[in-house]
Write a structure and sequence with these properties.
By secondary structure, the chain is of the alpha+beta class. The chain has helices spanning 55-69, 134-140, 197-202, 225-243; strands at residues 7-11, 17-22, 27-31, 35-38, 42-48, 74-80, 86-91, 96-102, 109-113, 117-121, 125-130, 145-150, 154-160, 163-176, 180-184, 187-193, 208-221. The N and C termini lie far apart (61 Å).
Length: 244
């Protein structure tokens, strides 16, 4: 299925918003609950998955995979049912940056963190990807279950803090599993121990690191939501102890 061709703009610097232009009959799909506003003539419908599944079994299989990632079973489809160009806007559920991905220029596939998908042109296939051996996956945290975005149109993901896009040319990059946002489909991805026992337990960098090899693009975020939540929680605990 060929993706709908959509125009867009990313508004803001730190806590960004994505605004999409929809021509008549064009549709964009988005994660549930991320819509900020929409103009008249735009109809929205909650559907199970991205609409690419064929038949009942395909739909049920897609639902099961989305439940496994912890994402909503439903995606919202926004369609311009009018005769003029209309706009719909989305924002991420936490502070950070929005990344625009032209899948046609990325060999038709990007692998990203399971909670980073924001929106995409209709026709984009959203699936899950297991990239790790079972043992490393359970202990590696964010890196076990990933999402696969496939198509020939625009897709949008969000990340925490500042985002850096690194181009690998037959190179290797190692990073914290939570700081990895996504990578192009031709990059080899693995999770490995971060070092010796002393480094793992006292180095402060975690027991596992993501290792990416090959040629392609890698997107890195400076502030994973999990890290931010840990700091906020720790601050709250210490504040309560100080008050008592």
């Amino acid at each position: 299925m060929q993706c709908h061709a959509i125009d867009y703009r990313i508004i803001g610097q730190d806590i960004q918003m994505l605004e999409i232009d929809l021509d008549p009959k064009e549709t964009v799909i988005a994660e549930a609950g991320v819509m900020t506003y929409m103009e008249e003539d735009i109809d929205f419908t909650a559907k199970m998955g991205d609409g690419s599944a064929q038949g009942l079994m395909g739909t049920l299989f897609g639902i099961g995979k989305r439940m496994l990632t912890g994402a909503s079973v439903f995606l919202t489809h926004f369609t311009n049912s009018g005769a003029q160009l209309r706009r719909v806007a989305f924002s991420a559920p936490f502070p950070g940056s929005i990344i625009a991905l032209d899948l046609a220029d990325l060999h038709g596939e990007v692998i990203c963190q399971k909670d980073s998908f924001l929106a995409a042109a209709l026709g984009t296939k959203i699936d899950i990807s297991f990239h790790q051996r079972l043992g490393s996956g359970f202990f590696g945290g964010e890196g076990f279950i990933l999402q696969r975005l496939q198509g020939d149109g625009m897709a949008f993901i969000h990340a925490g803090g500042t985002v850096l896009c690194k181009q690998l040319n037959d190179e290797t990059l190692r990073l914290d599993t939570g700081c990895l946002v996504g990578f192009s489909g031709d990059i080899d991805y693995n999770i490995a121990l971060s070092g010796g026992l002393k480094s793992m337990f006292f180095g402060g960098e975690g027991m596992f690191l993501a290792t990416l090899k090959g040629t392609g693009k890698v997107w890195v975020q400076s502030m994973p939501f999990s890290r931010l939540a840990e700091r906020v929680l720790a601050h709250g605990v210490f504040s309560k102890q100080g008050e008592s």
